[in-house]
Amino acid sequence: MKKINIVFGSVYGSAQYVAETLEGALHDAGWQVQFWPSEQLAAFVPPEDELLLVVTSTTGDGDLPENIMPWFSMMKERAPYLPGLSYAVVALGDSSYNTFCGGGKQVDALLGELGAKRVGSRLEIDACETMEPETEALTWLKTWLPLAASVEP
């Protein structure tokens, strides 16, 4: 059974709710899931033999929420080389801003710089188009799971 670590960044709770919804769906699909609350992320470096799923909203001028910034900063400063890590990003944003899904794009870029490989496309959920981002995330999950299942540890 493969393991997925879920990390989230949320300002008003939408990204956290999406992450919790995906956690439940992954668990129901038979995956081992580790959900990482923000206060436990300080020194978390994702194991390369497990998958990483990052769900984050965007705040300010395309910035990451405060509750995920310490983890993002630590990963950027320590710059662990992670060529064996496979990951996915679910980004929440508002397309009326030029920095649409900027938080998720930053995480995606950093993980790529660290040598990790994204599985599938980054999901970008637009607050202007959907009031229930968790529904869109669950639809994405159905197409992402077969890709994730084919990843070799």
Notes on the protein architecture:
The chain is an alpha/beta fold. It has one domain (3-149): 3-Layer(aba) Sandwich (Rossmann fold). The protein contains four helices and six strands. The protein has helices spanning 14-28, 69-78, 102-113, 133-149, and strands at residues 3-9, 32-36, 51-56, 86-93, 117-118, 123-126. Strands 1, 2, 3, 4, 5 and 6 form a six-stranded parallel β-sheet that branches. α1 crosses α4. The longest helix is centred in the last third of the chain and has 17 residues, at 133-149. The protein is globular. The N and C termini lie close together (11 Å). The mean pLDDT is 93.
CATH architecture: 3-Layer(aba) Sandwich
CATH superfamily: Flavodoxin domain
What structural class do helix, strand and pairing data support?
Answer: alpha/beta
SSE succession = EHEEHEHEEH
Supply the number of helical segments: 4
Q: What's the CATH class, please?
A: Alpha Beta
**Proportion in β-strands:** 15-25%
Distance between the termini: 11 Å
Q: Which segments are poorly predicted (pLDDT under 50) over 5 or more consecutive residues?
A: none
**Helix percent band:** 25-40%
Number of domains: 1
Give the overall shape. globular
- SS elements, strand count: 6
Average of per-residue pLDDT values: 93
> How many whole angstroms does the radius of gyration measure?
14 Å
Write the CATH fold name: Rossmann fold
